[in-house]
């Protein structure tokens, strides 16, 4: 746009609330020449400024001419419709935004070029390494599993691949039970058809939901529930070992008297399969469980209640008193759900992992998390907030799984190697997150800056 | 903070124990500088003397340098709603604590319909979720310029400003940014973003309008070059955006950049990049998928970088399933691990109880207590609530760990004289403490009823269980 008619110019002035010239028409071919360079300058204000300067010049001469006209017309006794209005418009308002550029430049000293700087990342190296623990045994090692799962082996914080390789990414086990447990609706609906049959349940968890391992909880052994005898309960374990060929974790009911017996029997019937016995705790006969693992070639889960010193103590007992090999121990320092003490769980696990990496051999074991605990949070399952002043909580079908995802994701960043989970959607998303950070998923978006201007 | 012991601070103080700072001794004042509840400037004699004596002025400056946070603190917004970001001192929260929670901004854009704009702004302003005795809220609004028209952008920014929340102005075109700043610079918005191609204009804007500025570059050499250039030109309030890529190798790279920036700033003591970090989970909306997938992934990105070092974020989804987990995680990660979250034990009277009202018992773990208390209050239940000192542990853990025992329940009942306040002998214990039922009955002689597992269900439980038959 190199030329602008006065009509257009007056329109422009109107836009800036300069209306003193309204009603004035100047006939003829009056045009204002504007230099191409000014128009090419993308700034419309700069353009306008140039225009205004030109118009100022024009008006100056127009004013002179008008003066003459006025004089002549008054001499002739004619009314003069625009004599008082023709003034130089209040142009300073318009170019204001443009003019300070030079001043700013001078006042603040804007450099010509970027200062050249180099970012030198600070490196962290730890002296220790987390023990590698193999779960499951294939034919070659005397078992019947199709594949094994290896946990541990880290020499750096989780997913810090820029510090050290992470040979084994975390694995995910899906929980199954030998009797119908209490489950949140959003979880239950995915297992409704298999709740009565642990073998089917395991099959579904592996084939449809991508579980790397199965955790079988023999809760019916609880003396307060069915009190199933250990010898009978482990038949379910045999069924599950038949049904799926992934590594298996076996848990009791949490009853301190009964669990050692149940886990001993489980160790016996699973001889050669290298299952994990869950769990040995400080307040039960941990030695019996440790011996059962040792005698039948299994792994023991060392479970303590969110206290680094208790964890160290129990691990030492298992190592030194019971003589369990360092490659046969996994720890569970307890998982608290998002919003229900995850801060404690996160920091406890992070401290344990850092201690292990720094060389504390009593803490250098893979970490397991009962991530299913996330479903204990009311935000995961409750239909609405019980608090009236709360904003709407939205549908729980979408809230629940993400509660499990965020709980797992947070703890994965603290150093968890094994997640015990339930919701299939949560399993899928957490796996994708961990495989992405672990460098196993390629791809990217075309331009990560597109969000800045995306519409809708 | 370069110093970790009050003694190191004490050396720089007047050591007169004048008490003008509000603490009895200079040593006590020094301890509060270490825990960051006060600053050297809060010592009146030090400030007075520094004005007169060049030597003391130098001492004050030294102390300020030694006690300033490792990561610069930047304020966005003004007045009560202003939000502080950065100011962090440690890499792991157990080393001390994290100080300023990640600030959450939610996007609107200038070509949005007026109705949608108003609705979203209102939702940001009104969002609240009760948690541990208070309400979790959102921090601000990010206004994106999608029109590329200065007038349009300016007018939408003005509208958003009227909601009184801090703003991030998102426009790479300096003319649009200038137009907006002419209206709202006094609201102290963060301007986003200076890049390799527009940095001169943005540097001018940051200096001229005295507003915090975000610099954006994926390459960390370039990011650092921008930071040094801005710093040397006199900009103090800088936010680093190392570019959030939402997927695959891109996301892996983002994680690496963010961790490296924070670690190098604190452990590597690189002051040139010791600024707050911005992460944009909104980038998740660039992936393929439906709205739920995008919002889920946005929450994943948000959560990942709440744990790992982001100081400010821009989100899109205001769906409760996205917002509730992230605001909760943020609160948790930024809880001070040095002070356990607990409340005073004792007896609480809720909704004016009478001698016929039920008696409940819970623990003094803040989360448990506030959950139970608010459930009872909001359900309009008149009752007595005994709060047992479980050393800040929840019901399940304290029952297992021996902090919640029949003996301690008996002591609490005696101390609070609850038997004199009611005309019955029924105590309702939490469902998770069911196994203590017999022991508490033996110990106290009261009849113990096992309440529901979740206090949100007390109302329904009372309908069938109270008054006891």
Automatic annotation (TrEMBL), chain A:
One of its GO terms (biological process) is one-carbon metabolic process. It comes from the Archaea. Residues 132-382 form the CO dehydrogenase/acetyl-CoA synthase delta subunit TIM barrel domain. InterPro entries: Ac-CoA_synth_d_su_TIM-brl (IPR016041), ACDS_complex_subunit (IPR051069), CO_DH/Ac-CoA_synth_dsu (IPR004486), Dihydropteroate_synth-like_sf (IPR011005). PANTHER family: ACETYL-COA DECARBONYLASE_SYNTHASE COMPLEX SUBUNIT DELTA (PTHR36214:SF5), PTHR36214. Part of a complex that catalyzes the reversible cleavage of acetyl-CoA, allowing autotrophic growth from CO(2). Probably maintains the overall quaternary structure of the ACDS complex. Belongs to the CdhD family. Heterodimer of delta and gamma chains. The ACDS complex is made up of alpha, epsilon, beta, gamma and delta chains with a probable stoichiometry of (alpha(2)epsilon(2))(4)-beta(8)-(gamma(1)delta(1))(8). This is Acetyl-CoA decarbonylase/synthase complex subunit delta. It comes from Archaeoglobus sulfaticallidus PM70-1.
From TrEMBL, chain B:
Its EC number is 2.1.1.245. 5-methoxybenzimidazolylcob(I)amide binds at residues 362, 368, 392-395, 455. Residues 1-60 form the 4Fe-4S domain. PROSITE patterns: 4FE4S. GO terms for molecular function: 4 iron, 4 sulfur cluster binding; iron ion binding; methyltransferase activity. The keyword Methyltransferase applies. Keywords: 4Fe-4S, Cobalt, Iron, Iron-sulfur, Metal-binding, Methyltransferase, Transferase. It is an enzyme of class 2 (transferase). InterPro entries: 4Fe-4S_dom, Ac-CoA_synth_d_su_TIM-brl, ACDS_complex_subunit, AcylCoA_decarb/synth_gsu, AcylCoA_decarb/synth_gsu_arc, Dihydropteroate_synth-like_sf. It holds the Pfam family CdhD. It comes from the Archaea. Binds 1 [4Fe-4S] cluster. Part of a complex that catalyzes the reversible cleavage of acetyl-CoA, allowing autotrophic growth from CO(2). HAMAP family: CdhE (MF_01136). This is Acetyl-CoA decarbonylase/synthase complex subunit gamma.
């Amino acid at each position: 746009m190199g030329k602008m008619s006065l009509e257009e110019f007056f329109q422009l002035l109107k836009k800036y609330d300069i209306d003193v010239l309204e009603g004035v028409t100047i006939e003829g071919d009056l045009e204002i020449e504007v230099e191409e360079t000014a128009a090419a300058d993308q700034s419309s204000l700069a353009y306008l400024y140039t225009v205004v300067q030109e118009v100022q010049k024009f008006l100056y001469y127009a004013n002179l001419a008008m003066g003459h006209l006025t004089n002549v017309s008054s001499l002739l006794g004619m009314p003069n419709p625009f004599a008082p209005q023709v003034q130089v418009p209040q142009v300073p308002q318009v170019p204001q935004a443009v003019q300070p550029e030079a001043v700013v430049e001078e006042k603040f000293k804007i450099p010509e070029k970027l200062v050249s700087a180099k970012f030198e990342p600070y490196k962290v190296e730890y002296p220790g390494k987390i023990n590698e623990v193999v779960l499951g045994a294939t034919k070659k090692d005397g078992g019947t599993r199709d594949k094994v799962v290896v946990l541990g082996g880290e020499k750096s914080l989780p997913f810090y691949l820029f510090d050290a390789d992470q040979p084994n990414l975390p694995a995910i086990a899906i929980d199954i039970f030998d009797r119908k447990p209490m489950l949140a609706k959003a979880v239950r609906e995915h297992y409704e058809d298999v709740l009565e049959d642990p073998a089917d349940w395991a099959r579904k968890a592996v084939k449809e939901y991508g579980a790397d391992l199965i955790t079988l909880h023999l809760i019916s052994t609880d003396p307060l529930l069915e009190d199933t005898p250990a010898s009978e309960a482990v038949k379910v374990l045999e069924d599950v070992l038949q049904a799926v060929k992934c590594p298996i974790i076996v848990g009791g009911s949490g009853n301190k008297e009964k669990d050692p017996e149940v886990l001993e029997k489980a160790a016996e019937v699973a001889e050669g399969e290298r299952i994990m016995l869950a769990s040995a705790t400080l307040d039960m006969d941990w030695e019996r469980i440790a011996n059962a693992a040792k005698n039948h070639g299994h792994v023991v889960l060392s479970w303590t209640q969110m206290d680094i010193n208790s964890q160290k103590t129990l691990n030492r007992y298992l190592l030194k008193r019971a003589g369990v090999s360092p490659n046969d121990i996994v720890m569970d320092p307890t998982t608290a759900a998002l919003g229900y003490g995850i801060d404690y769980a996160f920091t406890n696990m992070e401290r344990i992992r850092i201690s292990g990496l720094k060389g504390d051999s009593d803490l250098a074991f893979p970490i397991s998390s009962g991530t299913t605990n996330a479903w204990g949070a009311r935000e995961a399952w409750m239909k609405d907030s019980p608090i009236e002043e709360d904003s709407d909580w939205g549908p729980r079908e979408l809230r629940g799984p993400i509660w499990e995802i965020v709980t797992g994701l947070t703890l994965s960043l603290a150093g968890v190697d094994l997640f015990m989970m339930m919701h299939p959607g949560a399993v899928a998303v957490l796996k994708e997150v961990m495989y992405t950070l672990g460098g196993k998923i390629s791809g990217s978006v075309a331009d990560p800056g597109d969000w800045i201007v995306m519409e809708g | 903070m370069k110093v970790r012991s009050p003694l190191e601070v004490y050396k720089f103080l007047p050591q007169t124990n004048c008490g003008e700072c509000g603490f009895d001794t200079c040593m006590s004042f020094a301890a509060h500088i270490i825990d960051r509840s006060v600053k050297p400037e809060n010592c009146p004699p030090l400030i007075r003397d520094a004005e007169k004596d060049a030597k003391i002025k130098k001492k004050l400056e030294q102390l300020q340098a030694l006690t300033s946070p490792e990561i610069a603190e930047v304020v966005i917004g003004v007045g009560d709603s202003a939000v502080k970001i950065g100011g962090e001192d440690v890499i792991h929260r157990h080393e001390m604590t994290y100080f300023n929670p990640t600030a959450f901004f939610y996007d609107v854009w200038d070509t949005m319909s007026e109705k949608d704009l108003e609705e979203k702004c209102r939702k940001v302003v009104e969002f609240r979720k009760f948690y541990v005795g208070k309400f979790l809220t959102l921090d601000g609004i990010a206004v994106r310029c999608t029109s590329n028209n200065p007038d349009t952008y300016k007018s939408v920014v003005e509208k958003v400003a009227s909601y009184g929340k801090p703003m991030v102005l998102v426009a790479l075109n300096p003319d649009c940014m200038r137009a907006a700043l002419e209206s709202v610079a006094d609201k102290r918005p963060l301007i986003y973003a200076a890049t390799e191609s527009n940095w001169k204009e943005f540097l001018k804007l940051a200096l001229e309008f005295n507003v915090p500025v975000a610099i954006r570059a994926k390459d960390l050499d370039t990011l650092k070059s921008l930071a040094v250039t801005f710093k040397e030109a006199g900009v103090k309030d800088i936010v680093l955006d190392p570019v959030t890529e939402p997927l695959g190798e891109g996301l892996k790279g983002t994680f690496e950049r963010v961790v490296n920036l924070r670690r190098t700033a604190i452990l590597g003591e690189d002051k040139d990049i010791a600024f707050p970090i911005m992460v944009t989970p909104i980038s998740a909306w660039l992936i393929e998928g439906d709205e739920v997938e995008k919002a889920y992934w946005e929450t994943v990105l948000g959560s990942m970088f709440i744990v790992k070092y982001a100081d400010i974020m821009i989100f899109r989804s205001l769906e409760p399933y996205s917002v509730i987990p992230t605001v909760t995680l943020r609160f948790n990660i930024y809880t001070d691990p040095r002070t356990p979250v607990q409340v005073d034990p004792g007896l609480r009277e809720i909704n004016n109880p009478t001698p016929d009202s039920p008696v409940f018992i819970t623990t003094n773990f803040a989360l448990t207590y506030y959950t139970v208390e608010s459930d009872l209050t909001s359900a309009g239940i008149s009752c007595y609530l005994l709060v047992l000192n479980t050393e800040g542990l929840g019901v399940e853990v304290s029952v297992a760990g021996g902090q919640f025992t029949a003996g301690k329940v008996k002591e609490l009942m005696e101390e609070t004289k609850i038997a004199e306040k009611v005309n019955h002998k029924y105590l309702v214990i939490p469902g998770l403490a069911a196994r203590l039922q017999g022991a508490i009955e033996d110990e106290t002689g009261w009849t113990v009823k096992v309440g529901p597992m979740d206090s949100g269900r007390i109302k329904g439980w009372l309908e069938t269980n109270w008054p006891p038959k």
